[in-house]
Each structure stands twice: as structure tokens, then as C-alpha cells.
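Annotated sample (chain length 303).
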Amino acid sequence: MKNNKISVNLAQEIVNAVKEVVDKDINFIDKTGIIIGSTNKKRLNTFHEAGYKAIKTLTNVIVEGNNKYEGSKSGINYPIKINNEAIGAIGITGEPNEISKYGFLVKKITEVFIKEQQLNYKFEADKQRINYVVKSIIYNDIEDKVEIENILQDFNISVNQRFAVVIMQINKNIKSSDVQPIQNDITKVFNSIGNIFKIYIYPNEFIALINEERYEKLKVIYIDTLRKYKGNISGGVGRLKNLYSTYKSYQEARIALKYSTKYNKILTYIDDLDLELILENIDKTKYDEKEPNIWVSKKAIVD
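Output written by the structure step:
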């Protein structure tokens, strides 16, 4: 809900929910005075002068009779405020003396919907920022270090620590009905170790950055939660690296993942493989299937 603008869909959800409670026709009026949500479809996209006045004056506007305000019927119109700024108005159609008892309830229902929408918007915005950080780092495609570090700071994550990459992959051959429980449990593992920098790559892969503390916790938590999925999931973990060298951990995690898949392991740490096994699993230059611009060399593994 960018810039406190109410979408048409949200406005319609609000008026539908309010009508269920008060059984009166309800209108949602936007900041320009246009009805963008209504239980009376004929009034959609028309100007509502009383609602517009409520927005501009930040006061309730009562309409008695149908002719006092342009496009308005008898009722009461309440301004809806976020941070002391009116973002719209909610209007109840009916005899003012009868419907005034609903005013507090109508405003509260509207506020709940809007606050929920704000949380959803923040969640989606945060998810996009997380995706940006993870992909920039693991693919070694950083355009703006200052932006990366500002995002990390917003999440209270210090750049002066080491990170390892974890890749969890769901077997593509399992039944679609079995995928969701596995996704839920992989997410549960990452959440249990307190990790927020994780992304899900459709249709079957999770990638996460974990710091040194979480690196150790992962070893304990994943076994209990994921052991039942042996044969259905495989995972690889790279070594801990400084922030801007984390792409090397991603390359190592890919190699460990390949080993896990080949030998039916749930999770393999690159440190658990000796050099001979590592070199068995890579060519001199190996191109990643998903990201052709990402390569792994023998030098990268042993540096």
C-alpha cells in the first residue's frame, strides 16, 4: 500500500466486510472524493462530496436528505486516518440517528483491514530486498555495495562477519502433493536457526545465507526435522566466507549438493569432503545449470 494509497480491491473488501456487520450500504471514498468501493455498484466511480469533505476536514460529515452534497445520500461519512493523515473516508448510508451507533465499529473494521494490508506490503517489500541481497552476493553481481550494506543494517545484520551458503533441493520426481510439507519443514529449519536471508527458487530449491553461529546450529536442527525426507531432498553447505566472498561458498555448496544427490545424503558440508571427492564432482570449469554465468573452478575450492 505505497504512499498510503488504498487499492480498489482493498476498498471493496472493506465495504463488503462492514456490510456483513451493519447490514447497510457502505462506500469507500478515496482522497479525490471518488467512490472506489461500494456495496451499491451503481455508485462506483462517482463523486461523493460529503466523503471528500470528511477527508479534507478530518471530521465526520453527516448528510440529512439526498440533495445537500453532490453524489451523496443520507448517512454519515467518517475520515480514515493513518499517522494523522486522511487516506480516505468510509460512508454508511441510512438515517443518521439510526446508524451513528455503528460509527466506532465501522472505523475499527476499516483500520484492521488497512493495517493488515500495510503489513502485507512491508512483508513483500522486505522479501524483495532479501532476494536482492542474496542473489547479488551468491552470483557475485553486486552493483552497489552501499545499498547492500544499508539493507543488512536495516535487518540488524553486521557486514563484518562470515557467511556460508546453504542449498536445499527437493527431488523433482516426488508427488506434487508431497512438496508443500517438505517446503514447510525446510522453512522451519531455517526459521529455527534464526535465519532471514533465505530465498525460494521455483520450483524446488531453497538458498540461504547463514552466519557462523547459525552454521553450527544448522548441524543440530536439520537432522531431527528433515531426516524423514531422505531420498526426497538433498542439500549442500559451503564454507564460511567474508561477505563479498560468499559467492565462493555458493560454488562450494553446489558441489556439496551434487555429492548429496549422488549418494542420497540429506545435507553435505563441503568441509566433510576430501579434495579427491570434491574434484570427482567438478570439471576444470563447470557451468551451473540454473545460472550459466556462474562457474566453479578447482582453484576456487582450494583457495
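Annotation: Residues 103-138 form the longest helix (36 residues).
Annotation: The chain is about 45% helix and 20% strand.
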